[in-house]
Amino acid sequence: MKANALEIVKTLSDAGFKAYWAGGCVRDMIMGLEPEDYDIATEALPNHVMRLFNKTIPVGVSFGVIKVLLEKFEFEVATFRSDGKYIDGRHPEKVHFSSEKEDALRRDFTINGIFYDPLQKKIIDYVNGQQDIKNGIIRSINAPRDRFSEDRLRLIRAVRFAAKFNYDIEAETCQAIKEMSLSILQVSAERVRDELMKMLMGPRPASSIKLLDKVGLLKVILPEVTAMKGVKQPEEFHPEGDVWEHTLLMLKKMLNPGFELAMGVLLHDVGKPSTFSIEDRIRFNNHCDVGVQITEKIGQRLRLSRIQIDLICDLVRHHLRFKDVQNMSESTLKRFLRLTNFPDHLELHRLDCIGSHGNLSNWEFCKQKLFELKP
Prior knowledge:
Layout: H1 2-14, E1 19-22, H2 24-31, E2 39-42, H3 46-52, E3 56-60, E4 65-70, E5 73-79, E6 81-83, E7 95-97, H4 100-105, E8 114-117, E9 122-125, H5 129-135, E10 137-138, H6 144-150, H7 153-165, E11 168-169, H8 171-180, H9 189-200, H10 205-214, H11 218-221, H12 223-226, H13 243-253, H14 259-267, H15 272-275, E12 276-278, E13 282-284, H16 287-301, H17 306-318, H18 330-337, H19 342-354, H20 361-372
Parallel strand pairs: 2-5, 10-11
Antiparallel strand pairs: 1-2, 1-8, 3-4, 4-5, 6-7, 8-9, 12-13
Helix pairs in contact: 7-9, 7-10, 10-13, 13-14, 14-17, 14-19, 16-17
């Protein structure tokens, strides 16, 4: 892919146009990471790009964006531009093709506003992004309220980048997110879901959720999760603390989860706040059933597919059944072990144990039974 991205820059350069790698790929290179993809920014207009390459897709000609297909890879090639007024909190009303500096200044965060000339092996940095990478800072380019007003999705993207790279959000940028957190509701549920998915499947899901809470976005996106804070649990089963702390600990212990498992971990005890009672001890009667109802509503709100909602609800519904596995009849146990996507159920139980009392005897019992049932 890197060689193909270089070829695109060379083709544009040979035709007399400036062309650079831009955005995330440059950021990742400076961080010493392998880029997942390469975007190209150029002074060539869309019609020039389409003439220079055999296979192109005009995905956003009015915004100067063309996809170039080389071998099995797709590359986004965008003309240097400045954006006009944003009318919907997501897209500019119109764009103006402009200089490389203006193009850098219209981007979201300094770490994403750097160009790289692979022919000259030269970094072009108009926004001091290299320094912020060095210092581990997420900072908006120019006034943060302006950047977030243009595109409300940037509110949650700032959190995702900070958690992913273990960076701090610069104070003014962070304050703007707090003040504008309610406006995340202007973003489509699908885009919020996609950002949440990247966080939960990323390297620091627990940090992501904590930071979403810190800047006030979690209570807007998932108020049912913030309701877990301060909900006490019986210490003999949960020495780690309240429902919130238990959930964060489980998120921290996850190992490369799929999205459904990650959401199952996040929501497995979502029914506890509304079922809290003190009888002989703290109890959460029927919290699994209540949790399923809440999870169903969350899934619909985030525009998850029916299959995704069903899988996550099943994880919430069945997560307490593991406490009874060693007393189940053989037929009941077999049916339980044959639940759809049972490996996720088993992993959720493991996380539930290591995130609380640490007793893995039921997990080990199920692992052994699964081995014995193998054909």
